[in-house]
Amino acid sequence: IYKLLILQLIAYFCLHNKNIKLMAIKKHIPNAITLLNLLSGCIALVYAFDDNLQMAFFWVCMGIFFDFWDGFAARILKVSSPLGVQLDSLADMVTSGVVPGVVMYQMLDHIQENNAFYNVTEDTFYMKLVPFIGFIITLGSCMRLAKFNIDTRQTDSFIGLPTPANALFVLSIPMILNTTSFDFMQTIFSNPYILVGISIFSAFIMNAELPLFSLKTKNKNLSDNKLTFSFLGICVLLLLFFQYEAIPVIIGFYILLSVILNKTKKSAI
What we know:
The protein has 269 residues and is an all-alpha fold. Helix content is 75%, strand content 2%. A two-stranded antiparallel sheet has the order 1-2. Helix 2 (53-77) runs antiparallel to helix 3 (82-114) and helix 8 runs antiparallel to helix 9.
């Protein structure tokens, strides 16, 4: 009898210990995905400083991919935590805040170097400060992420353009310049005044009191995520047909669709 009781106790403690270990592993999975987002942002930064904006774009896309799934993993595994929330914002600050600021700086700096019309002269020495305006995007992203963490209204939706969407828009500009066959896009995105305007507008739209629907999946139920998957499906089609030129269109469509949905909800009330 004693031997049987001892064996039962050993079996119980082994099973209990196994469950504890599994829970400990599950708890760290979403945070590990978030750290992959941060790592992607760090790699993107290295390429951005090295003026390889194509690879910077790729690694930011990888970071945003990980950012999309970390919250989903936390909800599915039921291991959401305040640490995960803070870690997510800190990772986004690098991938979707610092990187687009550096990329905008590089674009503005190159225009001044390569276009004689915008060259810095003794009379326009103050123009040396223009490339630094690109970091307004970084400042706006920081404010956006800080507000997100304390804004209880943003549990199921967003107020202002999310930093990953803004980062994709900014980093798509050098890609469009390198690949587009549309002359008007070359003209628009090669103008430093327009790039300065985009930088300022980015900081504004990220912090504007503009409700936007969330692209993060709520659960495994397809019907609850119908809008998200439908929107993502349209995005995939646009990207297949128009490639990098589709990204600004997608961001504009996202904002417009959110405005329409907001008006529809208000009309229903």
